[in-house]
Specification:
The complex is a heterotetramer of chains A (254), B (101), C (382) and D (359).
Chain A lengths: L1 H4 L4 H5 L5 H6 L2 E4 L9 H5 L27 H5 L5 E5 L6 E7 L11 E5 L5 E11 L9 E7 L8 E3 L9 E3 L4 E2 H9 L5 H8 L11 H13 L18 E2 H5 L6
Antiparallel strand pairs in A: 1-2, 2-3, 3-6, 4-5, 4-7, 5-6, 8-9
Chain B lengths: L15 E6 L2 E6 L4 H7 L6 E2 L6 E2 L12 E4 L2 E5 L10 E3 L9
Parallel strand pairs in B: 1-7
Antiparallel strand pairs in B: 1-2, 3-4, 5-6, 5-7
Chain C lengths: L6 E4 L3 H12 L5 E4 L15 E2 L6 H15 L1 H4 L13 E5 L2 H16 L5 E3 L1 H7 L10 E5 L3 E2 L2 H14 L3 E3 L4 E7 L2 E7 L2 E4 L3 E3 L5 H6 L8 E10 L9 E4 L4 E5 L5 E5 L14 H14 L7 E12 L6 E4 L6 E5 L9 H12 L14 H4 L11
Parallel strand pairs in C: 1-2, 1-12, 2-8, 4-14, 12-19
Antiparallel strand pairs in C: 3-7, 4-6, 5-6, 9-10, 10-11, 13-16, 13-17, 14-15, 15-16, 18-19
Helix pairs in contact in C: 1-6, 1-9, 2-9
Classes of the chains: A alpha+beta (254), B mainly beta (101), C alpha/beta (382), D alpha/beta (359).
Chain lengths: 254, 101, 382, 359
């Protein structure tokens, strides 16, 4: 369902979450990266070797929770912002969740914000314990939130309490609408060149960059042809409008 | 609306200059596209289409389309999404297809 | 598909459509027009689309006058559901040499004698008609208010629609691959979509007409020459007439849509079937336009394109039949003026095919004039 | 007329890398870009890049542009920069005509690397021309380059990487994203991007499309509807969202006009965004001496555009007789990097597209 909603399921997460025992021991990285994509900075940034070497750049990260000490270097290096650090050893009632936060204003240490789950639903009040924004983090600051212990695997983001709270046009230049285009196709103008010549669509100042594709899609649908079989209109210079005076006054001749 | 602060970016702006749009004075930054200055001032409608009188605004941002043609310092059909703002520029809504003067 | 026809017309430009319409109007059944691509895809759709009565030979003046008078009423006669956008803003033709000035005086006398309302103007008077021209570059001008401009796609479509209503069949995207001749007579046309038997073939194939002639071993002394045009973005109307000069090599007109269309001739253009664009044209066109019509320097070019002039030795059309092959007719060699002659082409060709006396004396425009060396040079062409 | 050995059209990630690698072999390069700065789309990319170290993974696009520019500086004597210069045509005799600061200039190069990138596709729905309906690229330019907010509320159409990234960037600029919708039943972009947006509370509505835009002088409201598995509208599923900006990010098409003008053999390959040139392993098109790199050769990520640029630059220089001892090594490195970036599940579409046009 991740593919449909963008939200990881419990099944996905099962792979990413360490044992209760490990969590109780102290900070550890939780990497919520479940799709094979060509990306490896988590592995290259981990100086402890806690993330298994990638054999293929598309590998999804495999973390050794026993080696990971929750330092958080990988968190601000991850282009997908898919990593948080969780520390359940913080207190009896609360856990710490360190999240990357690339927004302004940054929260103030000691203030309270709203903890959000993976769908952005507010789930708790969270205290901002630390705001880390070093040069090495390159503008991906780390925010440490104290959240109720039972929500350590739920809170993944935060928000500030106060600040978040038939005229279809095909050709914009010559104002050809979808209705007019369909009427022309019905009349038997079945190629883009015929449509162009009869309606001027595609011959305006934008040179057809907006409408060419749309006209061809509509023609393909109407004629039952594949896009790859459709004749395409000629591409003439100039590709950008240029003043006559500029040409006349420019570098001329051979 | 200007973006006043940004977690990643800092905007290198030119100096603040005045320009005139349809008789009224506005402020913008020298060198930014005229359309950006107008947009920042909340002006979304830059003209109307010739035949169907449809409102036209900023659209492609790269000088390709015909959505933002305006009269600038008397010259018609200037693409204000790429034309750079200068001090005391006179920007006018273009009526029809523009007059060569 | 139909496999028989009474007449097969090769070419779906203005000529082919006009001939088809006129034949059908005269009651000919089973006329088929074969077009390699779509209607107007050849020279008609690429032309400057100006029409003028101001010519230098009597025959051209009469052909043009006939055509323009038809275009004036074409929307009604052809019962077109659109508008062919005919605008009679006139042609202002300027002279920049003494020789040209002398010729223009002769032309005016000839034109006036044929009822064409053209006038001879001083540079100052010319400037009143096109105020943004540089009148210091000219020594005189002629002006005919009846000349003008129309939309070539819509005009051709108007003919085609009317022809279809009269029973003409159009075969688009069909290529003629051969013409069958038996005992000196045309018997059929081979296409990539099958064979059509017919006793009459009309070659209205413009730039490709030499190729079609070759299919029946008729050597038509024409060649295709590339001509280029550019078009600007539209602006509000400022220039009513066409501006034209033969010696300065320019024609330039504002269309009702507001864009300016301009072109020029060039002896160095390739003489083959290429319709590519060149930077040489862009530069030379911009240069002469800015010199003669300096106000236009701030206009932006949005596109340049090319088409073929089908050039005949004397720059006049070739109308009529081929003596060697019975049933083979041609309407070609317009040398750049096929669109403006479209209406008259249809009438005289239909009359010729049906054995009637043509409304205009086109017998002098036959293919045999080149053998007899009876050429009729037209002095007034770009 | 001016001359050069290699003209590179487009100074985005592909063109920049092409210029650097061609110059590194000793070729004389003219790099042409229509903006007054190099970097192309990189200058709008505030997010960290994926990929590996070789493609600057984990560095922000805006900063990669700077890194490449520094590399470019090393070859000042070999590379002529033409900024604010728009190519208006490539003619049959190989002449490139361009406009630079209202000046018309012609260049006759010995070979050309076309790295013109791509342009945005558009969508059809009623009132799709209202001010407030923008392409994602235009919105990015406005917000990330010029520091102007496109509006207060945004509905994003398209949950591919661009739609997701631009949504995130707009949130960073303090603009409210009301929803991200996509007609497809699945999120097309990287799921880590989707997840980071979801946890900000932004709904991603897959199987949804725009039915209608409303507004008098500018966009005020959009009507959305749900689609079934056959991409047909589910009856009575319409609902309205008030918004002043609708941002359209439904894909890119390669900007191939110049290749068409040159008569390069082209093929329609939907996996690569539309019509793309047929090319060989060296990224040379069917027209000798005309190379391609980046999105114009098929829409992909900036990381592969950079590697393609490097490869095209190397091969174009080699074709002109410039030799490097480690040419084969460098070339194979590029090919390996490209293979690696295109491997795996998400690269499947690109691989099948490229298989159709690589000869």
């Amino acid at each position: 369902m991740l593919e449909k909603t963008g939200v990881a399921t419990e099944q996905d997460l099962a792979k990413a979450i360490p044992t209760k025992e490990r969590l109780a021991k102290g900070p550890v990285a939780i990497i919520e990266c479940f799709q094979r994509i060509p990306c490896n900075p988590c592995y290259t940034s981990c100086k402890r070797g806690a993330i298994k070497e990638f054999e293929d750049i598309n590998d999804t990260p495999e973390i050794n929770f026993e080696i990971c000490n929750g330092c958080g270097v990988c968190v601000s290096n991850c282009p997908g912002l898919a990593i948080v650090v969780v520390d359940e050893s913080y207190s009896n009632e609360e856990a710490l969740v360190k999240i990357p936060y690339e927004f302004l204003p940054l929260p103030v240490e000691g203030s309270f914000v709203t903890g959000l789950d993976r769908e952005g639903k507010p789930v708790c009040r969270a205290k901002v314990m630390k705001v880390l924004n070093t040069k090495a983090m390159d503008r991906t600051p780390l925010i440490t939130l104290a959240v109720p212990k039972e929500l350590s695997m739920t809170v993944r983001f935060m928000k500030h309490h106060d600040i978040y709270s038939d005229n279809t046009f095909i050709c914009r230049c010559e104002e050809l609408t979808l209705g007019e285009l369909r009427e022309l196709i019905r009349k038997g103008y079945n190629t883009i060149d015929e449509i162009r010549r009869i309606s001027r669509a595609g011959m305006g100042p934008c040179q057809g960059r907006t409408c060419r594709q749309l006209i061809m899609q509509e023609l393909a649908a109407a004629t039952g042809k594949k896009m790859s079989e459709m004749p395409i209109s000629t591409f003439r210079p100039p590709v950008k409008p240029i003043k006559l005076g500029t040409i006349a006054g420019g570098e001329r001749g051979e | 609306m200007r973006i006043e602060e940004h977690p990643i970016l800092s905007f290198d702006k030119g100096r603040r200059v005045d320009f005139i749009f349809d008789g009224k004075t506005y402020e913008g930054y020298e060198g930014e596209p005229i359309a950006a200055a107008l947009h920042a001032a909340g002006i979304m409608v830059l003209g109307h289409s010739h035949n169907k009188q449809r409102p036209r605004g900023f659209y492609c941002a790269i000088g390709n389309c015909s959505s933002c043609l305006m009269v600038v310092n008397g010259q018609p059909n200037v693409r204000v999404c790429t034309e750079k703002l200068q001090e005391n520029m006179i920007v006018e809504t273009q009526v029809g297809k523009g007059d060569l003067r | 598909m139909n496999n028989t026809a009474s007449v097969v017309i090769i070419g779906g430009g203005i000529s082919g459509c006009s001939i088809a319409y006129n034949l059908a109007l005269k009651g000919v059944k089973d006329v088929i027009v074969i077009e390699k691509e779509y209607l107007t895809s050849g020279s008609t759709g690429r032309c400057g689309a100006g029409v003028r009565m101001q010519w230098g030979t009597e025959l051209n003046c009469r052909l043009a006058k006939y055509s323009i008078e038809f275009y004036e009423k074409a929307n009604e006669v052809l019962q077109y559901d659109g508008d062919i956008e005919f605008k009679q803003g006139g042609y202002l033709i300027v002279a920049s040499t003494e020789k040209e000035d002398t010729q223009f005086k002769k032309n005016i006398a000839l034109q006036n004698s044929l009822g064409i309302p053209s006038v001879y103007l001083s540079p100052k008077e010319a400037k009143e008609i096109i105020p943004h021209m540089d009148e210091t570059k000219i020594i005189s001008a002629t002006f005919c208010p009846k000349d003008g401009h129309l939309n070539p796609f819509l005009a051709t479509q108007a003919y085609a629609d009317a022809a279809v209503r009269l029973g003409v069949k159009f075969m688009k995207y069909t290529t003629v691959t051969g013409i069958k001749v038996e005992n000196g007579k045309v018997t059929g046309v081979q296409t990539n979509k099958g064979f059509i038997s017919t006793p009459v073939v009309v070659n209205a194939a413009g730039g490709q007409s030499k190729l079609i002639g070759g299919m029946v071993d008729v050597d038509i002394p024409v060649y295709a020459e590339r001509h280029q045009i550019l078009v600007t973005e539209p602006v509000n109307p400022i220039q009513n007439p066409m501006f034209m000069s033969f010696s300065l090599n320019i024609y330039c007109q504002q269309t009702p849509h507001g864009s300016f269309i301009m072109g020029r001739g060039d002896a160095n253009e390739p003489r083959d079937l290429r319709v590519t664009s060149s930077w040489h044209f862009l530069e030379e066109m911009a240069q002469s336009c800015c010199e003669l019509l300096p106000l236009l320097k701030d206009l932006r070019v949005v596109r340049q394109w090319a088409g073929l002039y089908c050039m005949s030795p004397d720059r006049q059309p070739i109308y009529g039949k081929a003596d060697q092959v019975e049933g083979f007719y041609m309407a070609t060699g317009y040398s750049g003026h096929g669109f403006m002659f479209g209406p008259v082409t249809g009438v005289v060709m239909a009359e010729t095919i049906l054995g009637e006396k043509p409304s205009l004396p086109i017998d002098k425009l036959g293919l045999d004039r080149f053998e007899k060396d009876e050429l009729l040079f037209e002095p007034s062409v770009v | 007329m001016r001359t050069t050995e290699i003209a590179i059209i487009g100074g985005g990630p592909a063109g920049l890398c092409a210029a650097i690698s061609a110059a590194s072999l000793g070729a004389k390069v003219t790099l042409i870009d229509r903006n007054d700065n190099l970097g192309g789309q990189l200058i709008k990319q505030t997010h960290m890049f994926f990929g590996s170290q070789k493609q600057y993974a984990s560095i922000r696009g805006i900063d990669i542009a700077g890194i490449l520019m520094k590399d470019l500086d090393k070859y000042q004597d070999k590379i002529e920069l033409m900024l604010d210069a728009t190519v208006i045509g490539m003619y049959e005799d190989g002449v490139i005509a361009l406009e630079q600061n209202e000046k018309y200039i012609k260049i006759k190069p010995q070979s050309v690397i076309v790295a013109t990138g791509a342009s945005e596709k558009f969508l059809t729905f009623p009132n799709n021309d209202l001010p407030g309906i923008y392409g994602a690229g235009a919105v990015q330019t406005l917000a990330n380059v010029h520091g102007v907010a496109p509006g207060k509320n945004v509905v994003m159409v398209g949950a591919g990487n661009i739609g997701l990234i631009v949504s995130y960037q707009l949130m960073q600029a303090g603009i409210n994203i009301k929803a991200i919708i996509d007609a497809s039943p699945k999120i097309g972009g990287y799921l880590v991007h989707a997840s980071k947006i979801r946890r900000m509370g932004i709904p991603i509505l897959t199987s949804h499309t725009v039915k209608y835009a409303h507004g008098k002088d500018r966009l005020e409201k959009v009507t959305l509807c749900r689609l079934d598995e056959k991409w047909q509208q589910v009856p009575d599923s319409e609902f309205d969202i008030e918004t002043d900006v609708l941002c359209i990010s439904v894909g890119l098409s390669p900007l191939t006009e110049l290749l068409w003008q040159q008569g390069c053999e082209m093929k329609y390959v939907p996996e690569l965004g539309g019509h793309v040139p047929v090319r060989n392993e060296n990224l040379e098109t069917s027209m000798k001496g005309i190379f391609v790199a980046g999105d114009v050769a098929g829409v992909e990520e900036a990381s592969s555009a950079m590697v393609e640029g490097r490869l095209a630059g190397l091969c174009a220089a080699k074709a002109l007789g410039y030799i490097a001892a480690d040419f084969e090594e460098q070339k194979n490195d590029c090919l390996d990097q490209l293979n690696s970036l295109r491997s795996g599940h998400v690269g499947e579409k690109i691989r099948s597209g490229l298989a159709q046009v690589t000869v």
